[in-house]
């Protein structure tokens, strides 16, 4: 059956242009009323009152940068490495969807959106309490398991040697898989099994027994790579002073404009340890501030990309894996696109990030009532 565009449409009444003009001329006659003018002025004032704070709010969140001067077309920009190679030989995607703080009921859709946008790396943890929904979304995607990179983390309550495999099995079962690509010691802190946040001083001081157990689980085929998270240099050296069968594949730490940790980055590169950047945008607490940094906005304008893309690209260009979290479809898509920032802009951003006292978003030391600062003040 053929279908014509005009079908189903009613013709609009034709406007008699001449009559309309005559009418408007009649209105423009000498007996002008002041009311239309007043009404117009009133409307303009209302629009300005409503729009000025809105625009200010949007701009302060960094969503809209006013660009002056020539803008580049982002399609002409070089791409950054999409993967890194780990000591095991495995290839890990450089950008992941982070699911910390992605709540139940929204994390599944975020994962589905990410997978259809092209993400193949999901960074999760047992303690995020959303692994089941993440697993369901992965299953629904029908993407072959071997094409995905799944990371989880051993929570602080499960360091007792007999608990480690059980904790891993729980994550495997919730994610609906029989192996993890990467399993991390979530914190260099071991809690006692029972009793909230009561620390097990021996295991906290010496994570080697936990590491040995993780090595066994690699040999059993349940984990492909093992690593650490939130370890500072002293704690890494404390662990690697032991005779390890497998060296840590990565160290996942907070890295962003406010806490760029250049010394840790330099040391890690010199020692062949890949860093993963969590809270790269400064987390929900600092994201607005991060996207409003003048250098970030200037580079975004110049390159024709968004402020978030500048920060995420900068992270990859620094040689780290980056784990931006979002549950907003458009942002999830946006965050996967990383571009090479011209060297002088990259250095300017690096310098700007290092030119203020470091400011962490995440430090649970006092919340956990630790008798020490987990980062040793670094
Ligand atoms: P949402 O999840 O509501 O989209 P981080 O990755 O540093 O932890 O930052 C996460 C925060 O940044 C969340 O509040 C997230 O909001 C927000 N966010 C993620 N991507 C973007 C983006 N491209 N533009 C603006 N905000 C973003």
TrEMBL record:
Pfam family, one: Aldo_ket_red
UniProtKB keywords: Membrane, Oxidoreductase, Transmembrane, Transmembrane helix
Domain of life, source organism: Eukaryota
Transmembrane regions listed in the UniProt entry: 37-58
Cited InterPro entries: AKR (IPR020471), Aldo/ket_reductase_CS (IPR018170), NAD(P)_OxRdtase_dom_sf (IPR036812), NADP_OxRdtase_dom (IPR023210)
Occurrences of domain NADP-dependent oxidoreductase (ranges): 100-352
Name by which UniProt lists this protein: NADP-dependent oxidoreductase domain-containing protein
GO MF annotation: an example: oxidoreductase activity, acting on the CH-OH group of donors, NAD or NADP as acceptor
């Amino acid at each position: 059956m053929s279908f014509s565009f005009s079908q189903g449409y009613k013709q609009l009444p034709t406007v008699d242009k001449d009559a309309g003009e005559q009418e408007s001329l009649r209105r423009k006659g000498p007996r002008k009323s002041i009311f239309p003018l007043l009404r117009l002025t009133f409307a303009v004032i209302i629009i300005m009152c409503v729009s000025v704070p809105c625009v200010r709010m949007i701009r302060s969140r960094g969503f809209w940068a006013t660009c002056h001067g020539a803008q580049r077309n982002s399609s002409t920009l070089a791409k950054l490495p999409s993967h890194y190679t780990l000591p095991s030989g495995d290839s890990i995607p450089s950008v992941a969807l982070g699911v910390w703080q992605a709540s139940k009921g929204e994390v599944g859709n975020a994962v589905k959106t990410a997978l259809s946008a092209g993400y193949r790396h999901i960074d999760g943890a047992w303690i995020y309490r959303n692994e089941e929904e993440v697993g369901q979304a992965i299953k629904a995607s029908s993407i072959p398991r071997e094409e995905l990179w799944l990371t989880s983390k051993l929570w602080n309550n499960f360091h007792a040697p007999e608990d480690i495999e059980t904790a891993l099995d729980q994550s495997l079962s919730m994610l609906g898989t029989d192996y993890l690509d990467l399993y991390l010691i979530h914190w260099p802190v071991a809690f006692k099994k029972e009793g909230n946040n009561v620390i097990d001083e021996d295991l906290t001081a010496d994570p080697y027994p936990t590491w040995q157990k993780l090595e066994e689980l690699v040999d059993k085929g349940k984990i492909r790579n093992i690593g650490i998270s939130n370890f500072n240099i002293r704690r890494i050296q404390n662990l690697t002073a032991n005779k390890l069968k497998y060296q840590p594949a990565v160290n996942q730490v907070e890295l962003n404009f406010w806490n760029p940790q250049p010394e840790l980055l330099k040391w890690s590169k010199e020692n062949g340890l890949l860093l993963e950047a969590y809270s790269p945008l400064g987390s929900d607490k600092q994201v607005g501030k991060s996207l409003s940094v003048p250098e970030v906005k200037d580079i975004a304008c110049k390159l024709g990309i968004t402020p978030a893309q500048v920060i995420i690209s900068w992270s990859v260009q620094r040689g780290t894996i980056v784990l931006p979290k979002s549950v907003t479809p458009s942002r999830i898509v946006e965050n996967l696109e990383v571009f090479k920032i011209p060297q002088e802009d990259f250095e300017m951003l690096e310098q700007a990030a290092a030119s203020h006292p470091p400011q962490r978003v995440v430090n649970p030391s006092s919340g956990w009532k630790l008798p020490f600062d987990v980062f040793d003040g670094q």
